[in-house]
Amino acid sequence: MKFIIIGGDAAGMSAASRAKRNKPEMSVCVYEQTQDVSYSACGMPYNIADAGRDIDDLVVRKAKIFREKQDIDLKTGHRVESIDPVNKTIMGLNSQGNKFTDNYDALLIATGASPIIPDVPGFDLPGVFALKSLGDGRKIKEFLSSETKSAIIVGMGYIALEMAESFHHRGISVQMIKPRPQLLPWLSRNLANRIQNELTEHGVQLFDGHPIEGIESFDNQLKVISKDISLTGDIVLAAIGVFPNSQMAKAANIKTGPSDSILVDSTMATTENNIYAAGDCASAFHTVSKKQTWIPLALYANRGGWTVADNVCNKKKYIPGVLGTAVFKVFNLQVARTGLNMAEAKKFGFEPVEMVIQSRSRAHAHPGSGKIDVSMVGDLSTGKLLGVQMVGEEGVAHRINAPAIALHAKMSVEEFALSDLAYAPPFSPVWDPMLTAANQLLKKMS
Amino acid sequence: MKFIIIGGDAAGMSAASRAKRNKPEMSVCVYEQTQDVSYSACGMPYNIADAGRDIDDLVVRKAKIFREKQDIDLKTGHRVESIDPVNKTIMGLNSQGNKFTDNYDALLIATGASPIIPDVPGFDLPGVFALKSLGDGRKIKEFLSSETKSAIIVGMGYIALEMAESFHHRGISVQMIKPRPQLLPWLSRNLANRIQNELTEHGVQLFDGHPIEGIESFDNQLKVISKDISLTGDIVLAAIGVFPNSQMAKAANIKTGPSDSILVDSTMATTENNIYAAGDCASAFHTVSKKQTWIPLALYANRGGWTVADNVCNKKKYIPGVLGTAVFKVFNLQVARTGLNMAEAKKFGFEPVEMVIQSRSRAHAHPGSGKIDVSMVGDLSTGKLLGVQMVGEEGVAHRINAPAIALHAKMSVEEFALSDLAYAPPFSPVWDPMLTAANQLLKKMS
């Protein structure tokens, strides 16, 4: 039994480790095109923020450990280029330029995602970067110096925002530009406005609704050009999003789903026998919409790797749906979401009602309290909770897990409103902001 | 229709306000024995910690507002002394020493709880206090001065611990003593030990297993005497627990339940017609054990008040069970629980299995991470989650709400382990500590 894994980050190495734990006698081989495996990609903005920290601090487990302690045949510098599902082989090219082939009994495609680079001139200029792999992070860190005074970030998603804070932390002024209008269009307006203010207060300049025509280099600086404005900076970061690395899978006639992600079922199996996909290249089932979706996030990658390993080892395991539960930090704000927002809920045929409230992070009269904004969406026809978003200085990141569990449990807004949540003055009002939102939403729904 | 409420704190004033919102024409009369209504009792330790803050900052809504804006007939300084359920009357004594009587159509008993005072000499000495009412807090605050150098706290429950921090914050050294052995016996041992270390590191001395024989006064100080040791301090706080104020209800032939709390059904109705109870004097249905219990906490008091008001106004409302979800702060630690611990689970006939893990509050390599200890209890026979406890420097207070929702939803440990929780490096490892606990517990249960 030979289990081959293409890709050595979260999903790939989770699968490899778990397969060896499940069946130590199994032959497990991982092909990774770079030299980096098993690192915390999400930690890169925070590492880049601190010039004194080595980017390799983000490596969770070294290649040597996988090879020597876990008996995983980990081949770094090996880029798999094609899959032949009929003959159960893979073919590729290693970093020495040599071709290689291998045969599998089971295959996991964990090729991740790649940054979207706008198809306009100049994104290949020196000083223009994307941030997805540890190699990207390393290059940015090597580029940054005391001479770097200004950064232009193309995109305003959560990685773009984390990088805005990261640059700001290093004393680099930040301008952000994106082709489409609105900061965080998926976020309820009140909540997005609060983030906009937070960015502005930290001197970050926002230019939304400006399609990029190209980047030019002059005078040792870079100029990001759009129709009506052009921004000048020492470094440019392209952070407008990622796309799943599904080209090789498609070439092997494996079906793709939303956003061209590799379609998987609840065992993480693709449409081809004995071929699985997991991580940022794979689709996911959304628990609330009950539709396939593509939400590339770390926990799903790790859990997907485990699920594949268990199924490859004949321990039938099903992965439950995702909710898109996510949190990120922007300067002093925590931003979190789970489930569907209004637009998504409408798209999926619900009868959504939204309540947006502002409450406080601590009890009445308790010092140090901050504002928490909550958007809660319920379904008028069934009474069910559909999604929650929150923004606040404190207590948002972990609060979001409660409605996430409620969505898994298909709770109604009323059931959620009646739940027994924790209260102590330093941590919450008696009525937690989520309960206040639920109580108000219930009134609106009745 | 006349609705009479005995007691003007959380449950009583919530009920009064909601009844007037529901039915503005209803006659609502509240009898409160003190002059204080609607205050944040839980905030008292934090207020006492700060000599510069007025204790009346804790008043959420002033009597004047209830009377003038909400048209509630609020009678402070009126102590109700007996209830006659047959004639639907109450009788009492006001602060001027005058007797009063009144007739109700519906009655809410919201008499709260009182501190347990050990039946040994000396607890009535000047300088010996309890802390339950705002009046208690006021007296303590008036007593404390720059001359107060040392405090002895009798009891080690969460109010005792909050007050230890409060005294410490004012530069007062703290000794704590309790009759029975063990700090926080309801907490999993690893977790309790961490709290013990935290207290010790802050100079708090703990003496458990020392039955108190009395308190004596000498040399302007107080001596708390037990068989083998005696502790000397400038102030003594009795914080060994509270008991429900159910004496008057019992005298009116209303049935009581666990810990002598007034037995209520899911509409908060007592065993007597048209008489309800809510707040710290009332029993509660425990969602996990499916038994009546008595857990006097603020959210249940407020929610109970609402439930009574709705039922009095013929909007049939049911209050769901409680989980005993609670959180408190001890110096730099957050301590939280929801559901049953091992001993409780055994007592209620489950086949409990406990997993205790230690994880981190932030991602691998993210600076500022602290340890989070999690105890998770599952039921071997059904696979259900039964309870969770957590201790850590950050991220514990709100994390506990996720398993609370899971307990309401009667989730299995496996379902919880597969849930989509939030992850970002500043807030959590990829596998949230609760997921790690659930994954490990699952292994132990399989």
Integer tally of domains of chain A: 3
Oligomer: homodimer
Q: Indicate the structural class of chain A.
A: alpha/beta
Give the biggest beta sheet of chain A: 5 strands, parallel
Q: How many helix segments of chain A?
A: 12
Shape of chain A: globular
Biggest sheet of chain A, strands in spatial order?
A: 3-2-1-7-18
Overall mean pLDDT of chain A stands at: 97
Helix content of chain A: 10-25%
Biggest interface, which chains?
A-B, 68 and 67 residues
Beta-strand content estimate of chain A: 25-35%
Examine the secondary-structure arrangement and name the CATH architecture of the largest domain in chain A: 3-Layer(bba) Sandwich
Give the tally of β-strands of chain A.
Answer: 25
What is the CATH C-level name of the largest domain in chain A?
A: Alpha Beta
Describe this structure in words.
The structure is a homodimer of 446-residue chains. By secondary structure, chain A is of the alpha/beta class. The first copy, chain A, has 3 domains: 2-38 and 61-114 and 243-312, FAD/NAD(P)-binding domain; 117-238, 3-Layer(bba) Sandwich (FAD/NAD(P)-binding domain), CATH 3.50.50; 335-445, Enolase-like, domain 1. In chain A, 25% of the residues lie in helices and 28% in strands. Chain A contains 12 helices and 25 strands. The first copy, chain A, has helices at 10-22, 44-48, 63-68, 134-143, 158-169, 189-201, 247-251, 298-312, 342-347, 401-408, 413-417, 433-445, and strands at residues 2-6, 27-32, 73-76, 78-84, 89-94, 99-103, 106-109, 113-115, 128-130, 150-154, 173-178, 205-208, 212-218, 221-226, 230-233, 235-238, 242-244, 275-277, 284-285, 292-293, 326-330, 333-339, 352-360, 371-379, 385-392. In chain A, the strands form 7 sheets. The first copy, chain A, has a 5-stranded parallel β-sheet with strand order 3-2-1-7-18. In chain A, strands 9-16-10-11-12 form a 5-stranded parallel β-sheet, covered by helices on one side. In chain A, strands 21-22-25-24-23 form a 5-stranded antiparallel β-sheet, sandwiched between helices. In chain A, strand 21 and strand 22 form a beta hairpin. In chain A, helix 1 (10-22) packs parallel to helix 8 (298-312). The longest helix of chain A has 15 residues, at 298-312. Chain A is globular, with a radius of gyration of 23 Å. In chain A, 55% of the residues are buried. The interface between A and B is large, with 68 and 67 residues.
